[in-house]
Specification:
single chain; 493 residues; alpha/beta; 19 strands
Length: 493
């Protein structure tokens, strides 16, 4: 409900004085008469000081909606004929019982096709309903409805994964809100409610299972966010005054494998740099990150981000590698850090304080967003891929977010450096059925048997870093950090 339609001060309120009451002083009388007004003013003051925003404070209150007077409408500010890129803005949508409703009074409107998930080809779903067909149940729910000034309607893809949640889904909310609704970090950001519409739904929430994504989302949009299929709000009605749905001309999602990746690049253009820069700067400001004044000429501080052994992709010789790096004349110090035990804020502080960072493929690469200007990330992949560069997860991400970070990527083809976790396999009954050659091949080179073995996959193999490969990559990384550079040394770029 807008400020103009909800009177905060009722001019008709009258006060009564009883002759039986004790005589009050002028000050007491003033506070007695105006107490409710002072309470309203205090609430407004606190919401302003706390950054809640007056409109959001009002809209988050339950209110009664006369559904017979609600009429939905829409327009599509980006519409080149392709549903994969179409963006439409809706006015007065209802969200109720896991569905979106578009109410109309006259002719049934023509709502164009909108794809909200490229990889799964999911089409935006909204139920068109004539106001004469509104059910008694909906009318009853409208007596205690909640109103949102603005909302984004997005699909979270693999949203409980750290990379996809923080690097894609949160950015998608920011992009849609900033580009098409004008919510780019101003004080009005508290007015916007992110609504997630993925189907089939996942009841697992970010707040419980991926607090980093929930934290980043709250940094950008401190108001409430909801998953449309959440059973806790199933019978609650929401009126979305203005909402946006659609991907638009660019898409900050993982491109996909093989043919799908080529199609993705054909359908979508490069991400709008202004939106990307705003995303990074808003999060940096929100978390209060401070950056050291690193000397681009060195000596350099090197951070090695390792993974825990049982997680797979663990650098088994990280201590030895750290010592060799520290012996290089260009290096001042080295440190080895594991992300798993750290909070989200502790993790991003590690990246924000890293001038040179060595890591392997993993979801934590999304934290590169918080690295300082003119820093460099060295991505050491344990295996070279024939059909897809193992570095695209990083290079696409860096390009999409216009990160001021340099890049060097390399990978090994020598499987002697692969260290399968023996204890994962040898106690399995399937392992007992392998012949001697298959067992030796698995344990010595990490190649899974042709018939398969539960849990056997390159993604969980540990590895040793080949110093001969890494040494040359580091020398390139220590090159001119003033000049933005990206080098892929294994021919997979």
């Amino acid at each position: 409900m807008s400020e103009s339609s909800l009177p905060l001060i009722d001019s008709k309120v009258q006060t009564e004085c009883s002759t039986s009451r004790p005589q009050r002083s002028p000050v007491q009388a003033f506070f007695a008469v105006n107490a409710w007004k002072l309470a309203v003013l205090l609430a407004l003051f606190l919401t302003g000081c706390l950054g809640l925003g007056v409109k959001h404070w009002i809209d988050s209150k339950e209110t009664t909606i006369d559904l017979s007077k609600v009429v939905s409408s829409h327009q599509c500010p980006y519409n080149d004929g392709a549903p994969q890129r179409r963006v439409c803005i809706f006015n007065n949508l209802l969200m109720f019982q896991g569905r979106l409703f578009y109410l109309y009074a006259d002719v049934r409107p023509d709502i164009p096709d909108i794809i909200v998930n490229f990889h799964h080809d999911f089409h935006f779903e909204v139920t068109q309903l004539h106001i004469s067909e509104i059910s008694p149940e909906m009318h009853a729910a409208a007596a205690q409805a909640e109103v949102f000034t603005a909302a984004t309607l997005t699909w979270r893809q693999w949203h409980l994964n750290y990379y996809h949640g923080l690097g894609e889904s949160v950015f998608e909310v920011h992009s849609l809100a900033c580009k098409w609704l004008g919510y780019c970090g101003a004080a009005n950001s508290t007015d916007l409610a992110p609504i997630f519409i993925e189907r089939p739904g996942d009841q697992a929430s970010w707040a419980q299972f991926l607090p980093a994504a929930e934290s980043a989302l709250k940094c950008l949009f401190p108001g409430p966010n909801h998953f449309i299929g959440d059973d806790r709000i199933r019978n609650k009605m929401f009126l979305l005054k203005t909402s946006a749905a659609g991907i638009g001309p660019y898409n900050r999602k993982w491109r996909g494998f093989f043919d799908q990746g080529e199609e993705f690049k054909h359908v979508y253009a490069a991400v709008d740099k202004r939106v990307s820069v705003a995303y990074r700067e808003r999060l940096i400001k929100c978390y209060g990150l401070e950056y050291e004044n690193f000397n681009p000429e060195g000596p350099y501080k090197v951070t090695i981000v390792n993974r825990q052994y049982h997680k797979g992709r663990h650098m088994v010789n990280s201590l030895e590698i750290a010592q060799k790096i520290e012996e290089m004349p260009e290096v001042q110090s080295t440190r080895i850090v594991y992300m798993e035990p750290l909070s989200f804020k502790e993790q991003i502080k590690v990246y924000a304080s890293s001038q040179v960072l060595l890591m392997t493929h993993g979801a934590a690469l999304v934290n590169i967003m918080f690295m300082p200007k003119d820093s460099v990330v060295v991505l050491y992949n344990w295996l070279k891929r024939d059909t897809l560069s193992p570095h695209t997860w990083v290079t696409d991400y860096m390009n999409d977010l216009a990160l001021p970070v340099n890049f060097v990527g390399l990978s090994t083809e020598d499987r002697r450096f692969i260290y399968p976790q023996k204890e994962r396999y040898i106690f399995q009954p399937e392992y007992a059925r392998l012949n001697a050659e298959e067992r030796a091949t698995l344990l010595e080179t990490g190649i899974c048997p042709p018939g398969g073995l539960p849990g056997c996959d390159d993604m969980v193999m540990n590895f040793a870093v080949d110093w001969n490969l890494l040494h040359g990559a580091l020398q390139i990384a220590f090159g001119d950090m003033h000049q933005k550079h990206s080098h892929i040394l294994d021919g997979t770029g």
